[in-house]
């Protein structure tokens, strides 16, 4: 069996191109083709995904119980500090294991290799510290995107409804002096500079600030797939490879991710039951795109 699996792996990787070759050449795809190919391959992947999310739920319940125990028993002191630190570490590591493990399982499924859930799902634990740094980068981008997103949304509400932006701040962040100070100071300064009561020009500036953030989010979103599937590659090389590849077809990839995200959101309506199909489908779409870039000539 091991010999057969090893042979399957060799056969599946025989058409895989090197990073240098992929970056040097162009690629193309149709969104409809990616969607149809992914849906046709969903059979056999739902169970591994269910087990993966079950693992996440168990960890989430464990974290909730620890927080609940602190609140109820109020043990305080060293216990709170130590358990709080443990909760933080688990909360950070678990999604990384889940996401990276599902990438491994998805790629093996697409390559028609035998999936060993326990082995494959936790196969990236050895590179956890580097995956943490990679996810930290995405976290920084996400945090940076909050400011322009929030500013743009608040200012547009202010412009369209004629509501003073300070009233919106007081409604959204009542009692949070830090957020109120940060966002209030930015908009106060912007409106003072451009002499706008409702901040039309600041709203435009906030929108323009979103452009590089959105570009970076999509440009680097293949980084985990490239890093996990190409052993020995550095984090920075994985990120730059993703940026160079995505930039070639940025608008198509944006459209693909938008459509897949819309499908996943709609599937959540009937009590989230649709996630059983749409979550593995979403991973298959990205995995099929990855294969299109790296394994199709």
Write a concise keyword list for the protein shown above.
globular, 297 residues, mainly alpha, disordered N terminus
Short account of what is shown:
The chain has 297 residues and is mostly helical. The protein has helices at residues 2-13, 19-24, 31-40, 46-73, 77-110, 117-121, 128-161, 165-172, 177-194, 200-219, 223-229, 235-248, 250-267, 275-294.
The largest pleated sheet is described as: none
- Write down the secondary-structure element order: HHHHHHHHHHHHHH
Radius of gyration: 23 Å
Structural class, by secondary structure, is mainly alpha
Q: What percent strand?
A: under 5%
Mean pLDDT: 76
Count of structural domains:
1
Give the termini distance in whole angstroms.
30 Å
Number of strands: 0
Query: What is the percent of helical residues?
Result: over 70%
Low-confidence stretches: 1-14, 75-80, 194-198
Overall 3D form? globular
Number of helices: 14
Describe this structure in words.
The protein is mainly α and 297 residues long. The protein has helices spanning 2-13, 19-24, 31-40, 46-73, 77-110, 117-121, 128-161, 165-172, 177-194, 200-219, 223-229, 235-248, 250-267, 275-294. The protein has one domain (21-294). It has 14 helices and no strands. The protein is globular and about 60 Å long. Residues 1-14, 75-80 and 194-198 have low confidence and may be disordered.
Tell me the layout of helices and strands.
Elements: H1 2-13, H2 19-24, H3 31-40, H4 46-73, H5 77-110, H6 117-121, H7 128-161, H8 165-172, H9 177-194, H10 200-219, H11 223-229, H12 235-248, H13 250-267, H14 275-294
């Amino acid at each position: 069996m091991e010999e057969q699996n090893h042979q399957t792996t060799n056969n599946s990787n025989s058409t895989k191109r090197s990073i240098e070759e992929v970056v040097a050449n162009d690629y193309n795809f149709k969104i409809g083709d990616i969607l149809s190919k992914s849906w046709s391959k969903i059979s056999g992947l739902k169970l591994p995904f269910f087990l993966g999310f079950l693992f996440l739920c168990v960890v989430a319940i464990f974290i909730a119980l620890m927080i609940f125990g602190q609140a109820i028993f109020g043990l305080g002191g060293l216990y709170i500090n130590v358990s709080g630190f443990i909760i933080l570490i688990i909360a950070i590591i678990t999604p990384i294991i889940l996401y990276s493990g599902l990438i491994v399982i998805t790629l093996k499924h697409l390559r028609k290799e035998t999936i060993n859930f326990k082995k494959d799902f936790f196969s990236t634990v050895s590179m956890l510290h580097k995956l943490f740094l990679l996810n930290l980068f995405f976290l920084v981008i996400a945090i940076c995107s909050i400011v322009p997103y929030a500013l743009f949304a608040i200012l547009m509400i202010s412009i369209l409804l004629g509501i003073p932006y300070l009233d919106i701040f007081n409604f959204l962040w009542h009692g949070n002096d830090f957020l109120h100070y940060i966002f209030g100071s930015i908009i106060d300064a912007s409106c003072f500079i451009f002499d706008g009561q409702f901040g039309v020009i600041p709203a435009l500036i906030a929108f323009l600030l979103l452009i590089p953030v959105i570009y970076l989010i999509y440009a680097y979103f293949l980084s985990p797939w490239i890093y996990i599937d190409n052993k020995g590659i550095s984090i920075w090389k994985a990120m730059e490879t993703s940026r160079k590849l995505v930039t070639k077809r940025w608008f198509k990839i944006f459209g693909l991710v938008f459509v897949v995200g819309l499908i996943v959101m709609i599937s959540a309506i009937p009590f989230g039951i649709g996630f059983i199909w749409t979550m593995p489908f979403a991973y298959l779409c990205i995995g099929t795109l990855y294969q299109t870039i790296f394994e199709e000539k």
